[in-house]
């Protein structure tokens, strides 16, 4: 067992860091082993980084973006002695490869495009080593910015958490999904720091249990009052009057405010509307995709059927049964009360308000 101390100052120390870039090497916390084991893996090559993203060892839209940025640095380490031309050609090919690891979270594409744009500005680079240094510098900036974006979301969302309230969340949009204090959890961490008492209801989030394994783990470690629910308990919990607001994260927000998030979010949003509970979406600008007009333009990742036919290592369905396993769903903007962003709380009409704050 080993764990990296959390370098992001405001993340509670008891929560292991999602990733670290040290001595030109990328280290990732293997989130598939949580909550039972805290294991950190050195990423030896770009194929390993691709696999870590694909297998959800590192997951959550902002964390995938930062891991992808450092992953491209790992990919280019061997090309430092090549010509500038071959370095640039290889960069484009390696970036396309990394982007193919997961399609829905726009942060991965966004981070890789930022590295590409940075090198496009290095027209007068003396050699490939100088290009490599610029890549690492840009990846390090993306990493630092991610932490600041989380803090900004926290500042703009903290007032939503009133003393004594119940907050329901789905999946894990927490510290483990970012390199800071999370997105959906950022207002929670700040409210907790201010001494506000509140309770979080965490959906366990089938099929891969990010709510049970990750959200319950990190909030409990931070000393936040968290109660775990199976996904089918959310309706009854709302009906009992225990939930005052819902805060979720997102993998991609379209220009009209439709958003993709972990499968099951749509159901939670419909329930919240039924019970008159406001649903907020915590979202850094790196997750906005204003080039995609509406939710139907967002690609939804389909994952392997064995995630549904088994529970952990145990098979729970008959051999050969047909299975659907979309990893995300699209929630229409009509079910959203507001977006909590690093620049402020954005209410409807979203098409206009998101564009005027971010374009
Ligand atoms: O499949 P995952 O675990 O990567 O899904 C994560 C989510 O759906 C999160 O809610 C989303 O990425 C936002 S993370 C701040």
Describe the model.
There is one protein chain. The chain is 38% helix and 16% strand. By secondary structure, it is α/β, with parallel strands linked by helices. The protein has two domains: 19-152, translation initiation factor eif-2b, domain 1 (Four Helix Bundle (Hemerythrin (Met), subunit A)); 154-358, Translation initiation factor eif-2b, domain 2 (Rossmann fold), CATH 3.40.50. It has a seven-stranded mixed β-sheet with strand order 6-5-4-7-10-15-16, sandwiched between helices. Strands 11-8-9-14 form a four-stranded mixed β-sheet, with helices on one face. A three-stranded antiparallel β-sheet has the order 1-2-3, with helices on one face. α2 crosses α4 (106-121). The protein is globular. 5-S-methyl-1-O-phosphono-5-thio-D-ribulose (MRU) binds at residues 56, 59-62, 105, 171, 173, 177-178, 183, 210, 249-251, 261-262, 327.
Jot down its keywords.
binds 5-S-methyl-1-O-phosphono-5-thio-D-ribulose, 16 strands, single chain, Four Helix Bundle (Hemerythrin (Met), subunit A), 11 helices, Rossmann fold, 359 residues, alpha/beta
Give a short summary of the structure.
With about 350 residues, the chain is an alpha/beta fold. Helices cover about 40% and strands about 15% of the residues. About 50% of the residues are buried.
In whole angstroms, the N-to-C terminal distance is: 45 Å
Radius of gyration: 20 Å
Bound molecules: 5-S-methyl-1-O-phosphono-5-thio-D-ribulose
**SSE ordering:** EEEHHHHHEHEHEHEEEHEEHEEEEEH
What structural category do the secondary elements indicate?
A: alpha/beta
Which strand order spans the largest sheet, edge to edge or round the barrel? 6-5-4-7-10-15-16
What is the mean pLDDT?
Answer: 96
Number of strands: 16
CATH fold-level assignment of the largest domain? Rossmann fold
CATH superfamily placement of the largest domain: Translation initiation factor eif-2b, domain 2
Query: Helical content, roughly?
Result: 25-40%
Strand percentage: 15-25%
The tally of domains stands at 2
């Amino acid at each position: 067992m080993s764990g990296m101390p959390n370098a992001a100052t405001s993340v509670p120390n008891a929560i292991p860091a999602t990733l670290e870039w040290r001595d030109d090497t990328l280290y990732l916390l293997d989130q598939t082993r949580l909550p039972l084991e805290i294991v950190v893996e050195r990423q030896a090559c770009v194929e390993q980084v691709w696999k870590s993203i694909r297998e959800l060892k590192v997951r959550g839209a902002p964390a995938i973006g930062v891991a992808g940025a450092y992953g491209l640095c790992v990919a280019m380490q061997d090309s430092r002695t090549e010509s500038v031309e071959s370095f640039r050609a290889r960069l484009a090919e390696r970036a396309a490869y990394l982007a193919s690891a997961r399609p829905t979270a726009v942060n991965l594409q966004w981070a890789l495009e930022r590295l590409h744009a940075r090198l496009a500005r290095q027209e007068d680079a003396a050699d490939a080593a100088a290009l490599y240094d610029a890549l690492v510098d840009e990846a390090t900036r993306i990493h630092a910015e991610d932490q600041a974006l989380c803090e900004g979301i926290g500042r703009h969302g903290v007032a939503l958490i009133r003393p004594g309230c119940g907050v329901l969340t789905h999946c894990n949009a927490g510290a483990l999904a970012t390199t800071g204090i999370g997105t959906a959890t950022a207002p929670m961490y700040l409210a907790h720091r201010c001494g506000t008492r509140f309770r979080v209801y965490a959906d366990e989030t089938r099929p891969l249990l990010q709510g049970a394994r990750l959200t319950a783990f990190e909030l409990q470690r931070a000393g936040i009052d968290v109660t775990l629910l199976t996904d089918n308990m959310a309706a009854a919990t709302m009906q009992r009057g225990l939930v005052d607001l819902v805060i979720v994260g997102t993998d991609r927000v379209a220009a009209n405010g439709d958003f993709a998030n972990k499968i099951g979010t749509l159901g939670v949003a419909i329930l919240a509307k039924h019970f008159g509970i406001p649903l907020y979406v915590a979202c850094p600008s790196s997750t906005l995709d204003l080039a995609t007009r509406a939710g139907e333009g967002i690609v939804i990742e389909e994952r392997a059927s064995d995630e549904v036919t088994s529970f952990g290592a145990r098979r729970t369905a008959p051999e050969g049964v047909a299975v659907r396993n979309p990893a995300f769903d699209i929630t229409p903007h009509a079910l959203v009360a507001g977006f909590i962003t690093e620049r402020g709380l954005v209410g409807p009409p979203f098409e206009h308000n998101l564009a005027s704050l971010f374009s």
